Amino acid sequence: MENTSDTNSNKAAGMVVAIDGPSASGKSTNARMVAAALGYWHVDTGAMFRTLSWYCLKEGVNPEDPAAVEKLCDQWPAELKAEQGRVFLTVDGYEPAKEIREESTSAIVSKVASVPKVREWMKLTQRECARFGSLVMEGRDIGTHIFPDTPYKFYLQASLEERNRRRAAEGVNEDLSARDKMDSGRKVAPLKIANGAVVLDNTGQTPEQSRDRILAEIQRIQSGL
Ligand code: DC
Does 53 contact ligand 1 (Cβ within 6 A)? Predict the structure, then answer.
């Protein structure tokens, strides 16, 4: 896999802010806002699993067949790109930004993400993102498996009611409780609160309030309090 990046990026290497939590817990919004505030790269690891899921559908690979998914993951023409504040995967130079949000992809992503060799590939690739500089990385296992040594670990949560409301407002009709169960119940790298993570419940909060709490916690951790 080759990597390309903005040539004019001045982001220094080093820090990782890990943001984990269930679907619609505000990870993407908060990770994007915190990355913008700190001048770090934003990495949406769910989008990476979704990109492979989209590619399975495109190549006619059965997501219920772990051996076939593994084989595809072993050979797919994926490449990391860092542009406009984001690090993301392209396939044959194409970023399937819209397609990965479609219901067909959402329906299979938990299955694809539960294949052990897929998780191994993602772990290596997600760690490789650090070569671009400091990161705000969101996902399910960033604080537990991908960057367990970072001191900046967050676990976001919100009530199921509020999370369903958020998804509906985005025009997405999805069974979040079923996805929660799959993400938390799988054998490899299940969703759970990392040791030392700061747990923030943002039910009823604006994205700005939630972002500011994360930024304040980062400052507190930095000052060693
Ligand atoms: O955050 P999201 O809804 O885009 O994530 C899509 C799926 O990918 C979700 O069902 C769980 C999985 N995922 C994962 O297993 N590990 C991650 N680090 C990120 C996402």
Answer: no
Nearest CA to ligand 1 atom 2: 46
Q: Which CATH superfamily is domain 15-40+134-225 in?
A: P-loop containing nucleotide triphosphate hydrolases (3.40.50.300)
Looking at ligand 1, which atom is closest to the CA of residue 138? Answer: 18
- 15-40+134-225 matches 45-133 in fold: yes
Burial of 123: CB neighbours in 10 Å, binned 0-12, 13-18, 19+: middle
Question: What is the domain partition of the chain in residue ranges?
Answer: 15-40+134-225, 45-133
Reduced to 3 states (helix: H, G, I; strand: E, B; else coil), residue 135 is strand
> What pTM was computed for the model?
0.91
Q: Is the CB of 140 under 6 A from ligand 1?
A: yes
pLDDT for 41-95, tens place per residue?
999 999 999 999 999 999 999 999 999 999 999 999 999 999 999 999 999 999 9
CATH number of 45-133: 3.40.50.300
